[in-house]
Predict the 3D structure of the following.
Amino acid sequence: MNNIFCIEDILKYAQSSDFVSNFNNTLDYLNAKNRAVFVTTSNRFQIKGKQEDIPKSTQIAHALSKRMKAEPVIIHADSLNIAMCEGNISRMDGNSCGVKDSLLKDKEKNPSGNHRCWASINVKDDELWKITKPLFDSDCILFFGSIRWGQANGLYQKIIERLSWIENINVTLKEKNIVKGIDAGFICTGHNWRGSDVVKIQKEVLSYFGFNTPESLFWNWQWTKNSEDEDLQGYKKDAADFKKLIKLTVKGKNIDERQE
């Protein structure tokens, strides 16, 4: 069997984005950063006795980190206890999201003094601070997620909702932009539906928050543009094709396990 994977194959299967080009553009941009934070948000249930199944977007995060000049902080959000957003923006008695009384009074968890979220106070074992603490010490935060039913995966959305106070402090409460000067991005993977649409929306969201949102940090990889392609063999080929692509980004080395 011929195992050569040519550029025509890459263009065929990458479909909505040129994977290698996007990867390299992101890498070039990140190599100008000194304190990047990566937050992976996709997940897999691990079956005992089988090789660890790592989400594609998480593989991209590790492939980038292997080639960066300055090693990023990598946070696997699926291992954190993130409480639900309490919806305090829409309370009947008024918007109380991110008000000064919601300050997380813990110097270990909130050394910047920026973390103001009621859920972090009301839910004692909430771990959103494990994302915001490095965030406020960073020059770039990059989220990695997946497309599920035409939307960003649930954990990513949960985190974004919990971070609403960043936007609320600046825009509604008219205090200040506490993420001024920090770049943000969103890279996602999916099988066959709406990847580019989701990236566009998340770019807008992170811009509303007050982050810088450079084009190099926003893209998706989608196996096919055919939203009707739900064949079981297609899903297997999706994984196999991605494995070949990710190898190209790490000089022939495959990402077979997480590296903390």
Strands lie at 36-40, 73-76, 140-148, 151-152, 183-190, 218-222. The first helix runs from residue 7 to 14. Residues 1-17, 252-260 have pLDDT under 50 and may be disordered.
